[in-house]
Design brief:
Strand order of the largest sheet: 7-6-5-11-12
Helix content: 40-55%
Shape: flat
Distance between the termini: 32 Å
CATH class of the largest domain: Alpha Beta
CATH topology of the largest domain: Rossmann fold
CATH superfamily of the largest domain: HUPs
Number of strands: 17
Number of domains: 4
Length: 584
């Protein structure tokens, strides 16, 4: 990366200034040297403000420190056309073309690996997300967790982590018992029996499609079941159909899990009871008011938490403790759990339980997703047309498509609510970022087709040879990887045109840094925004610069830039799980 190379040059310059006794008593630079993009274009392409951080140590003005470091900078003019010191103590750099040329060549050499990082050092990470109760359809809030988790998994793999994805199935407890009562009543009602529907149950309309599938598969053969047996059987069959529906919908959204982990299995194999015994042996639990409590207050929580209620049933925390013990036992270096914001109150208790089990709670990250607000023509959309309650994920996907759903649910920080405009998501214009980015990729493909495929003359009807034949194209591709200097032909003397050419390449070469920053901050949405900015730079380049010209060397160089742009767009779209179309 250009920033890395420039940082290295400034580190060497600073060290030379120190060795020459020009920076007081320093023996080494005590602060990191950062290279940043200035806010104003007239201040250069890149800038360094290390002198501002050294002033108090060196006991000299920042401007003088910057001048001293600048005197020791040794960079060829091919790489930096000029640099100057500016108040209050910045060193500003205007880049030459050599680094730009090398950046393009690197993209061609690495292709779909460009931007990948070894940041993760193959650490094993388990990401648990969605984990919706199997009691009905997934709503748009579940969709946000699904998209965020999926994008984060793609991102961390791209950044060098070894990632697994897991759906925790909440398939036991009162909500499943309630599902059984409702499904059993609805099954009988759909088959003509006059039975009451539970007043406190799930709405009939939310379960009717699933129960109808039970009827389609099993007919009336379950009517002879009675009471609790009927509730248990219908609850289990309906739960399995709901899980099938959730799997199918998530696959359509581009979300696939390595494992669907059953909460029920933790109870059946004794893992929950084993954890409770472990807490007791460690003297981390006690009984009071007929219930069993975990001493979470001693471990940083605001209060102690119940593990087993006075009625004998264990709590979510007991099962979560057993589940996380199982996760740690599988040898992961880091656990990431993605929950809805409504679970924020459970985080301290879970962290305390992890500590009580003897594990480092810092190895567990809990990321909370805020709500999704849907709107249409400026009006809030709160109810499902079919369900009459919340808006389902399936409805939104049917209306705007998988790619728009993934983009709009991915691009925002999970800590911020999303305002999802359904009408905007369907637009085919620049105002719709998802479409605009995909169109940029398709435009690159269209330029390549124009260069490499025969065309028909509209006046004569005769087929014309492509500007670049297949053999020449093979030579071009080899040269892109091996001869960075050929990209010099991209640039024009006109400074405004050159600025757009340079900005496009600078943005392309910045992908590795974007990937690492997004991975560290757990912010895959950063790459969605990066892709939109890249589409903007491509549009500006396209407006001022022809790609296919009468000059073969210019055409070769600019086609190489277009191929590099297409590659970077495809790499980013792959991370956020949005299709990279060749035609639109």
């Amino acid at each position: 990366m250009i920033k890395e190379k420039l940082r290295a040059a400034l580190e060497e310059a600073t060290q030379r200034a120190i060795q020459a006794g020009k920076l007081g008593a320093l023996t080494s630079c005590p602060v990191p040297i950062l290279i940043e993009k200035p806010r104003l274009a007239e201040h250069g392409d890149l800038s360094c403000g290390v002198a501002l951080k050294l002033a108090s140590t060196v006991k000299t003005s920042p401007i003088r420190i910057a001048e001293t470091i600048a005197e020791h900078v040794d960079i060829g003019e091919r790489f930096v056309s000029r640099f100057e010191v500016a108040a209050p103590g910045f060193i500003n750099f205007h880049l030459g073309t050599a680094w730009l040329n090398e950046a393009l060549s690197e993209i061609h050499r690495l292709a779909d690996s460009f931007g990948k990082s070894q940041l993760g050092n193959r650490q094993r990470v388990l990401i648990e997300y969605v984990s919706a109760n199997p009691t009905g359809e997934l709503h748009i809030g579940h969709g946000r967790g699904a998209v965020y988790g999926s994008c984060l998994a793609h991102l961390l793999r791209f950044a060098g982590f070894k990632v697994e994805e897991e759906f925790y199935v909440n398939d036991t407890g009162e909500q499943i018992a309630q599902l059984g009562r409702c499904a059993w009543a609805l099954y009988q009602r759909r088959l003509g029996k006059a039975v009451d529907y539970p007043a406190e149950g799930y709405p009939e309309e939310s379960l009717v499609d699933f129960v109808d599938l039970v009827i389609k598969r099993h007919g009336e053969g379950l009517l002879n079941l009675g009471g609790k047996h009927g509730e248990d059987k219908l609850g289990d069959l309906t739960k399995q159909i709901i899980l099938e529906s959730q799997r199918d919908l998530l696959l359509k959204l581009g979300v696939q899990f390595d494992r669907w982990f059953s909460e029920l299995s933790l109870h059946e194999n004794g893992r929950v009871e084993a954890v409770l015994e472990r807490f007791a042996r460690a003297e981390m639990s006690y009984e009071a008011d007929g219930a069993l409590w975990l001493k979470t207050k001693e471990l940083g929580d605001e209060r102690d938490r119940v593990l087993r209620k006075s009625g004998g049933n264990t709590t979510y925390l007991a099962a979560d403790a057993a589940y996380h013990e199982d996760k740690f036992a599988r040898g992961y270096d880091r656990l990431i759990t993605i929950w809805g914001a409504d679970h924020h109150g459970q985080v301290p208790g879970l962290k305390a339980a992890v500590r009580a089990l003897g594990y480092d709670p810092d190895r567990l990250e809990v990321i909370l997703n805020q709500i999704v607000n849907l709107s249409r023509d400026g009006q809030s959309v709160r109810m499902s047309k079919r369900m009459g309650t919340v808006v389902t994920l399936a409805e939104v996907m049917d209306e705007v498509g998988k790619d728009a759903v993934r983009y709009y649910l991915a691009e925002s920080n999970p800590q911020n609510p999303i305002n999802f405009d359904l009408e905007l998501a369907k637009q085919t214009s620049r105002e719709n970022p998802a479409f605009y980015i995909q169109y940029a990729h398709a435009r690159c493909c269209a330029i390549m087709r124009k260069a490499l495929e025969p065309a028909v003359n509209l006046e004569s009807g005769q087929e014309q040879s492509p500007p670049v034949d297949s053999e020449t194209w093979q030579d071009f591709q080899k040269a892109y990887r091996e001869q960075p200097e050929l990209f010099q032909q991209i640039f024009e003397r006109d400074q405004q045109v050159f600025a757009h050419q340079k900005e496009l390449i600078l943005h392309l070469q910045g992908l590795p840094e974007e990937v690492e920053e997004a991975a560290v901050t757990r912010a895959p949405g950063r790459l969605a925004r990066y892709a939109y900015e890249l589409a903007n730079h491509l549009q500006k380049f396209y407006e001022v610069c022809r790609v296919i010209t009468s000059d073969k060397e210019v055409t070769r160089a600019r086609l190489g830039l277009i191929v590099a742009t297409r590659q970077v767009l495809a790499n980013v779209l792959g991370i956020i799980g949005v299709t990279a179309p060749e035609r639109m």
